[in-house]
Every structure is written in structure tokens, then in C-alpha cells.
Design goal:
Layout lengths: L1 H12 L3 H23 L14 E5 L5 E6 L5 E5 L9 E2 L12 E8 L2 E6 L6 E4 L7 E2 L6 E3 L4 E4 L2 E5 L1
Parallel strand pairs: 3-4
Antiparallel strand pairs: 1-2, 1-11, 3-5, 5-6, 6-9, 7-8, 7-10, 10-11
Length: 162
């Protein structure tokens, strides 16, 4: 409200041209600073397309079978749903469902990053990093950070992190 009164005084009531010019320059500088401040990216946001938004279940040929949008969700249980027991990412109908545990893994969002944790599954969890050629098995009960482009392996089931 104060700004509105200041602008009314400057441009309507006040008749001094140098004062109007000075206020105009200050307004332009202030607006430019606000725009730059609000559009500045943090070091973790180099590319907007590297933010993890979804998980994609892939078939043997790399074709998408299912997608789960995970943005804004703090935690997702991965496994097989059954009557009286639901999971967030249900793999009960995948080709290798017999190798997936009822509660196979959990995906948690913490401090701006996603972490996957093997819940002592029989066949384990692996992660193949974007620039690596082979997946690395993660230890049970030790969260491992996942990044955009990583491939999560739950037994023989592949889930792409996008």
C-alpha cells in the first residue's frame, strides 16, 4: 500500500521532473533485480529435465509398460499387492513377479533426493547408473541415492528413473 501512495505522489502530485526520472530508474533496477532473483537456478537444478518425476516399468525390449508419477510423494513401497496388503508400486503382474517379494523395496524422498532401500528381499535390488554398464547390487537396509536416468533392478524387473 505504501508503494502505491509513493507512486501516486511521485507521478501525480509531484511536479519535479528529476525526481520522477530518479524514481523511474530505481523502479527499473528493482524490477530487474527481482526478476533475476526469481529466475536464478540453484546448483542442483542445472537442467529442469533432470528432476525426477516418474518411474517407468520397462519390458525386455525397453518399451514402457507402466508409469508411476512420484513428484510430491514422500515415500513409495515397491512390491506385490494382495488382499489386505497394498503397495504403492505394484509389480504383481510383471513377467518376473515370482522373483519380487511382497515388500521388496522402499523409495524415499529426503533432503531433495530420492533413495531406494532393499527391504531384505530374496532377490535383491540393483542400480545401474546412467553412465555405467552394469548394475550394482545395493545392501539391505542401506539406502542408496537414485538419480535421473538410473535403472532400478528388482530381481529381473527394470524400472527407469525419469
Amino acid at each position: 500500500m505504501t508503494i502505491i501512495f509513493a507512486l501516486i505522489y511521485t507521478y501525480i502530485i509531484n511536479s519535479q521532473l528529476p525526481f520522477k526520472i530518479l524514481v523511474s530508474i530505481l523502479l527499473v533496477i528493482s524490477l530487474a533485480w527481482l526478476i533475476m532473483k526469481n529466475t536464478k537456478k540453484s546448483p542442483n537444478d542445472e537442467f529442469n529435465d533432470t528432476k525426477i518425476n516418474k518411474l517407468v516399468l520397462l519390458d525386455y525390449d525397453g518399451e514402457s509398460l507402466k508409469e508411476w508419477y512420484i513428484q510430491g510423494i514422500p515415500s513409495m513401497l515397491i512390491g506385490k499387492s494382495s488382499p489386505g496388503h497394498e503397495v504403492d508400486i505394484d509389480l504383481s503382474d510383471v513377467e518376473y513377479a515370482s522373483l519380487i517379494s511382497k515388500e521388496h523395496a522402499v523409495l524415499n524422498y529426503s533432503s531433495g533426493s530420492w533413495f531406494i532401500e532393499d527391504l531384505e528381499s530374496e532377490n535383491g535390488v540393483g542400480i545401474k547408473r546412467l553412465n555405467e554398464s552394469t548394475p550394482q547390487k545395493i545392501q539391505s537396509d542401506k539406502p542408496s541415492e537414485v538419480h535421473f536416468g538410473d535403472m532400478i533392478y528388482l530381481a529381473n524387473t527394470r524400472i527407469l528413473v525419469k
